[in-house]
């Protein structure tokens, strides 16, 4: 990206902020006053920001990543200084002059690019230990499959016990669970048994069962639905050898068996897809122990949707950050499955540049896309879609909101999860009663908006 030519918009910079407090703090630093020795070249921005101490903070941003480095003690990534520097650079073409990075910035940039360009050869010292023993790896994989199979069999029995004793028993005090008709064992204990069986996907779904219990007037119906999906997953794994290869891959992923990203990019069956990928949304979630970043992309040529997942422990930075609205010319390799969506990022052939508003579809087509995806992967909660020419309007019954097609013949309710925050009001303000383009997830709860274009992307 050329800082003297195309540059990010303010909304794209703010989309990188980890929270609202960081957005506000970064905005206060988006002026020349606190900054000195700022500069930019074709791929980075840097500067010194006056802080509370005697020495200014050193902030540098690799805009090709993007990636961030600051000498401040903040545990947020990016910190307010990196955000302020980017906002200063994005907001005024003359505020940050072109130049060569100083030594402190240049050393970090060089080290980072060396890591990025280094071929994936495993951890340091891997070569000296010699190649892995394929026979030992095969035995380990067999043992894990056996443990998961035992866990799935146990879970099937517990589901049968629950249904035999009646779903109402699950709501008794103490959180009755499969296997005891509502008595001693907790849902968390059942999930722990699945973790012991090395099936984290099954453990996660058991915890979902526990969260449904007594969570509303219709919880028994929802619990039955979740039990049915879990039963389907159990039976699918126990009969995995008889499934078509794509569906078998989906079942493996759903129970928690992962595929090495390096194998997707360089293995014997690697089939990376090169395209110009438009970044549709970036969304972070934090459970206190692990930060998860979801980045949605859409291929300009292929029209394929992709989801890039990255994870980091508490107070650790996430390596990849891509604000909505950028386009990257890169390889993506999809994880195997009946309806591939998750992908890993491979070689990037050019710096990211601002992209256009993505083409979208109508509500009927969005519902059809979700239905097609659900046919291939019945455990899907939602499917990413871009809606074009839709208008946010209050629901007909006076409760909630919905998105209406331009002709008013079709409407899609908004997911209740977005109604408790400011997202729906942001969307209404962006629209102003006129049709807009919105990206989000279409699922059984409704449509969850993540990004709207006005004409630049705005994260909701």
Structural class: alpha+beta
* Average predicted local confidence, pLDDT: 86
| H and E order | HHEEEEHHHHHHHHEEEEEEHEEEHEEE
Helix content: 25-40%
Report the total helices: 12
Could you tell me how far the N terminus lies from the C terminus, measured between alpha carbons in angstroms? 25 Å
The domain count comes to 4
Please count the beta strands (DSSP E, at least 2 residues each).
Answer: 16
Cα radius of gyration in angstroms: 24 Å
* Unreliable residue runs: 1-5, 119-130, 173-184
Task: Give a description of the structure.
- The chain is α+β, with helices and mostly antiparallel strands and 460 residues long.
- The protein folds into four domains: 10-117, no CATH class; 139-254, no CATH class; 259-354, OB fold (Dihydrolipoamide Acetyltransferase, E2P) (Beta Barrel), CATH 2.40.50; 363-459.
- It has helices spanning 10-14, 20-28, 80-91, 103-117, 134-165, 187-196, 200-212, 219-238, 245-255, 261-266, 363-376, 423-431, and strands spanning 35-40, 44-49, 57-62, 67-70, 273-286, 290-299, 305-313, 326-334, 343-348, 353-354, 382-394, 401-405, 411-413, 436-443, 446-453, 457-459.
- The strands form three sheets. Strands 5, 6, 7, 8, 9 and 10 form a six-stranded antiparallel beta sheet that branches. Strands 13-12-11-14-15-16 form a six-stranded antiparallel beta sheet. Strands 1-2-3-4 form a four-stranded antiparallel beta sheet, sandwiched between helices.
- Strand 15 and strand 16 form a beta hairpin.
- It starts with 9 loop residues before the first helix and ends with a strand.
């Amino acid at each position: 990206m050329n800082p003297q030519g195309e540059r990010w918009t303010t909304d794209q910079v703010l989309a990188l902020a980890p929270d609202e407090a960081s957005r506000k703090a970064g905005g206060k630093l988006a002026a020349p006053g606190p900054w000195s020795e700022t500069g930019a070249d074709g791929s980075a921005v840097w500067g010194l920001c006056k802080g509370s101490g005697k020495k200014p903070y050193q902030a540098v941003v690799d805009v090709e990543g993007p990636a961030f480095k600051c000498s401040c003690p903040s545990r947020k990534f990016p910190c307010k200084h990196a955000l302020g520097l980017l906002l200063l650079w994005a907001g005024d073409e003359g505020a940050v002059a072109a130049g060569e990075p100083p030594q402190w910035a240049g050393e970090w940039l060089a080290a980072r690019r060396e890591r990025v360009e280094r071929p994936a050869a495993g951890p340091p010292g891997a070569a000296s230990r010699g190649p892995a023993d394929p026979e030992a790896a095969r035995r380990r994989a067999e043992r894990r499959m056996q443990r998961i199979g035992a866990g799935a069999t146990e879970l099937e029995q517990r589901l049968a016990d629950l249904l035999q004793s009646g779903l109402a028993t699950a709501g008794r005090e103490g959180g009755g669970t499969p296997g005891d008709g509502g008595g001693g064992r907790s849902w968390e204990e059942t999930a722990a048994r699945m973790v012991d069986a090395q099936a984290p996907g099954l453990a996660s779904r058991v915890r979902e069962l526990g969260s449904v219990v007594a969570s509303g007037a219709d919880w028994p119906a929802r619990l039955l639905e979740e039990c049915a999906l879990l039963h389907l997953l159990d039976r699918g794994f126990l009969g995995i050898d008889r499934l078509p290869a794509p569906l078998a891959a989906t079942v493996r992923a759903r129970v928690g068996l992962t595929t090495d990203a390096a194998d997707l990019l360089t293995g014997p069956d690697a089939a990376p897809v090169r395209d110009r990928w438009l970044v549709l949304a970036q969304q972070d979630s934090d459970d206190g122990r692990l930060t998860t970043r979801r980045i949605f992309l859409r291929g300009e040529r292929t029209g394929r949707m992709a989801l890039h997942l990255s994870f980091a422990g508490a107070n650790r930075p996430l390596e990849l950050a891509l604000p909505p609205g950028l386009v990257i010319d890169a390889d993506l390799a999809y994880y195997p499955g009946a309806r591939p969506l998750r992908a890993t990022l491979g070689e990037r052939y050019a710096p990211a540049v601002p992209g256009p508003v993505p083409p979208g579809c109508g509500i009927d087509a969005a519902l059809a896309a979700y239905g097609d995806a659900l046919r291939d992967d019945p455990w899907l909660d939602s499917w990413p879609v871009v809606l074009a020419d839709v208008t946010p309007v209050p629901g007909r019954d006076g409760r909630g909101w919905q998105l209406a097609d331009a002709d008013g013949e079709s409407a899609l309710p908004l997911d209740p999860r977005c109604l408790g925050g400011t997202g729906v009001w942001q969307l209404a303000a962006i629209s102003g009663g006129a049709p807009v383009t919105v990206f989000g997830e279409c699922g059984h709860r409704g449509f969850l908006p993540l990004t709207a274009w006005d004409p630049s992307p705005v994260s909701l």
